[in-house]
Amino acid sequence: MNEMIIDFPGGARVDAHFGGYDILTDQPPYAGGQGSAPAPFTLFLASLGTCAGIYVLGFCKQRGLPTDGIRIIQRMESDPATRMISKVELEIQLPPEFPEKYKEAVIRSAEQCAVKKHLENPPRMTVVTKVMA
Q: What is the distance between the alpha carbons of residues 14 and 37, in angstroms, rounded to a whole number?
């Protein structure tokens, strides 16, 4: 099992540590934090677009296509009744010189995103407690 250490450095901060990396999170001021880092849910949403971006980048690199001028715009819609995200749209913006023959394939590459696939087939999550000695 891979492991992350999650700790509480103060205020509304909750940070994750793994493999030599530190992922810092905080809540915005209206939610009791200082806004010193993205909120955890914001990082989750960003992981969708950045993961798709990794696949688009890999697609372009494999074919020797320049990535200058390519960007992804991520839009979210919320269900007003539940206040949950009900739709995420990724719009891959391509420069005019991007080859027409690869436009559908670049969409298919973004759809291979591991984060997207995990949302479509979510892992089982358990929560337990342990008293430390």
A: 10
Q: How many domains does the chain have?
A: 2
90 pLDDT more than 90? yes
Interval 73-93 mean pLDDT: 96
First to last CA, the chain: 22
Q: Say what the pLDDT of residue 82 is.
A: 96
* Percent of the chain residues topping a pLDDT of 90: 98
Q: How far apart are CA 52 and CA 63, in angstroms?
A: 17
Residue 123 domain-assigned (yes or no): no
Residues 97, 86, single domain; the answer is: yes
What CA–CA distance (Å, rounded) separates 112 from 132? Answer: 40
**Residue 100: alpha-carbon gap to chain centroid:** 28
